[in-house]
């Protein structure tokens, strides 16, 4: 049940912000501070989420094969690889590291 | 002038590449304990990848539904700003806006903004949106159904797909020192608070890095102009 509540709330909220952008008169969100905050919030969230999902399991900090996968993704990004290649590199290197017993 | 076919080709490229990664989402979500119906509902109704991965990650970590949804929502707020730019660029008719809104995401915005004319932007937005929506939902379903066949998703390294997606979305946003400082503080807060706060809450606290850095910058700027006088 909890999962359905989370899905319902997320779906409604995410749709409403998308729609708001299209409906709101341009002036309302044009304030420089609001724009900068909107650009920086995803940066903070994505950074925190990347770190957590790479270096933790069930509320404990861990260093495992995912770190190698993340490094591979970062290397692919530096080499300007396409989106799918970045994800594939992370998955493949993580799997390889686990197979080698990391 | 850019030929319509060139716009369609660009749009298809983005739509197909990103659409296929719905498979990773389906597998990840199944690994997090969601059932097929729940997973497909997320891709059909939420349709903004980072929010979906965030929600599933938070639920898997044992977060309560509201903190999990809050994290996904904050990630989705950037779409409002995409919509703001797109509404001027595409000049979407009022009646079509509720439909077009569902496709306002990173990729459709990126393709539309890259076009030289309104006509090209409209084609780019529509083709990217349609391709991505169809493929993302199809591959989500395949991933959700295939998760069991894949077996231990961790052995295949699929638990690295979520963070890799986040990193790929984050990398182009890290342009200025401010961006990097915010990201650095958010990482420290997210990891540092993880062992001491309930699941899902550290990410929300980490989001405060954004207003905190802006506030601090404003203060420094104020002090500097004060010293100039």
Automatic annotation (TrEMBL), chain A:
Record-annotated membrane-spanning stretches: 6-25, 37-55, 67-97
Name of this protein: Branched-chain amino acid transporter AzlD
Keywords: Membrane, Transmembrane, Transmembrane helix
Domain of life where this protein originates: Bacteria
Protein's organism: Streptomyces spongiicola
InterPro entries to which the protein is assigned, alphabetical: Brnchd-chn_aa_trnsp_AzlD
Automatic annotation (TrEMBL), chain B:
Subcellular location: Cell membrane
Pfam family, one: AzlC
InterPro entries per record: Brnchd-chn_aa_trnsp_permease
Keywords: Cell membrane, Membrane, Transmembrane, Transmembrane helix, Transport
TM spans (from-to): 12-32, 123-144, 156-174, 181-210
Membrane-related topology note: Multi-pass membrane protein
PANTHER family: INNER MEMBRANE PROTEIN YGAZ (PTHR34979)
Family recorded in the similarity comment: Belongs to the AzlC family.
Name the UniProt record assigns to this protein: Branched-chain amino acid ABC transporter permease
